[in-house]
Design goal:
Elements (H helix, E strand, L loop, with lengths): L5 H11 L3 H10 L4 H14 L1 H4 L6 E9 L2 E9 L2 H4 L2 H17 L4 H6 L1 E2 L2 E2 H12 L4 E9 L2 E7 L9 E7 L4 H17 L11 H17 L7 H16 L5 E2 L2 E5 H7 L4 E8 L3
Antiparallel strand pairs: 1-2, 2-5, 3-4, 6-7, 7-10, 8-9
Helix pairs in contact: 1-2, 2-3, 3-8, 6-8, 10-11
Length: about 280
Amino acid sequence: MANYTAADIKALRERTGAGMMDVKKALDEANGDTDKAIEIIRVKGLKGATKREGRAAAEGLVAATVENGVGVMVELNCETDFVAKAEKFITLGDAVLKTAVDSGAADLESLLAAEYEGRTLGDHVTEEGALMGEKVVVRRIARVEGAFVDAYLHRTSKDLPAQVSVLLAVDSDSDEAKTAAHDIAVHTAAYSPTYLTREDVPAETVENERRIADETARAEGKPEQALPKIVEGRLTGFFKEIVLEDQPFAKDPKTTVGKVASEAGTKVTGFARFRVGN
């Protein structure tokens, strides 16, 4: 007869994030010894890590923090929403974010190579994923600096950790600027702009869009003399979709994000937006 209870299984699942059958097998092998069972789960999990390399890790969480005008944001992925909402996975997300802040890492390679409790963060994440029995990966990191940086986290489901996060920097730390920065960060989470200004859009992207607009107008039989105005109008519409400053503001579509910032006496100087799995 097994030397453990249903409560032991539940407790071990919460500690490791591993599946029920994996936990039961480990407890059977360990004769109910929880610490030994954890070691068994870890060893078997690490052995199975290579088998999980090809699996899709599209669930997970985003985490962000701001200290002294520097915003840091990370995305941690797993395979299932069951693991994504587990306390152990959320704690791992906190550890990844703290390491990102403490190490000053600006890219994923540097973050994974950063020291964490005597080993690299990458190794730590791999070991924790082994315990959970899933592919767990740090997908990306972003750093945004400014006179003031707002961090906005959005939950798409009350049962899951944050799935969308935004860092948005402005060039003023006045109360008006801070309020505007937060409102624009919320807007950014919903409208997912790609670029901050028109000048940030690659020239080849603009030219390709211009060509498409021209060809489309000609196919529609628009008069030759009207083509330049039509093309520019459609290009303006394109910018409104992908450029943050040009987007109609979510709370008042009659104005633009750029004007909202300007009226608050500030200007957006940078932003980053993550959505889990996208």
